[in-house]
Design brief:
Pfam families: EFP (PF01132), EFP_N (PF08207), Elong-fact-P_C (PF09285). This protein is 0% helix and 52% strand. It contains no helices and 16 strands.
Length: 187
């Protein structure tokens, strides 16, 4: 058991038969009344997100999550296929479970999948990935980094706001936690 005050972003716990991941957690002391923990939580199985408060002394059961290094093989007919790098065992994950993560995955990319008992509950991405620009407006001559930018569609379908000088075919480094442009990737 773990107290609500000890919960941090990224931790997973069980409550009412649900597996819940903490997205954000902050300690809040209102002008009157007792201290509370404000949290943004996501139900791992359904994907629904809720904002809630908990008493700091409230106890929840911490879930033991195992991780395994895998390689993303392909996405076909609503199922993403991964292969364990050590045993070559293959895992099939429904696309609905990892819909957001798929926007950053390229074939043969190495990632980590997370298990709760024998159930796959998610995919951990690296902090940044290199993706190629598939579609964007033509570059503007004399454009600088400080301009407002323009939308660019990456090879995976992810849409990112990029500086005006970026062109189709360029490889860019993208932050996976925020979905934002970091810099041009070195070839």
């Amino acid at each position: 058991m773990i107290s609500a005050v000890d919960l941090r972003a990224g931790m997973t716990f069980e409550k009412d038969g649900k597996l819940i991941k903490v997205l954000e957690a902050s300690h809040h002391k209102p002008g009157k009344g007792n201290t509370v923990m404000r949290m943004k939580l996501r139900d791992v199985r359904s994907g629904s997100t809720t904002d809630t408060t908990m008493r700091p002394d409230e106890k929840v059961k911490k879930a033991h999550i195992d991780s395994k290094a895998v390689q993303f093989l392909y996405n076909q007919e609503g199922v993403a296929n991964f292969m364990d790098l050590a045993t070559y065992e293959q895992y099939e994950i429904p696309v609905e479970v990892i819909e957001e993560e798929l926007k950053y995955l390229l074939d043969n990319m190495e990632v980590t999948i997370q298990f709760y008992v024998d159930e796959v509950v998610g995919v951990s991405l690296p902090t940044s990935v290199v993706l190629e620009v598939a579609e964007t407006q033509p570059s503007i001559k004399g454009a600088t980094v400080t301009g407002s930018g323009k939308p660019a569609t990456m090879e995976t379908g992810l849409v990112v706001n990029v500086p005006d000088f970026i062109e189709v075919g360029e490889k860019l480094e993208i932050n996976t936690s925020e979905g934002t442009y970091i810099k041009r990737a070195k070839n």
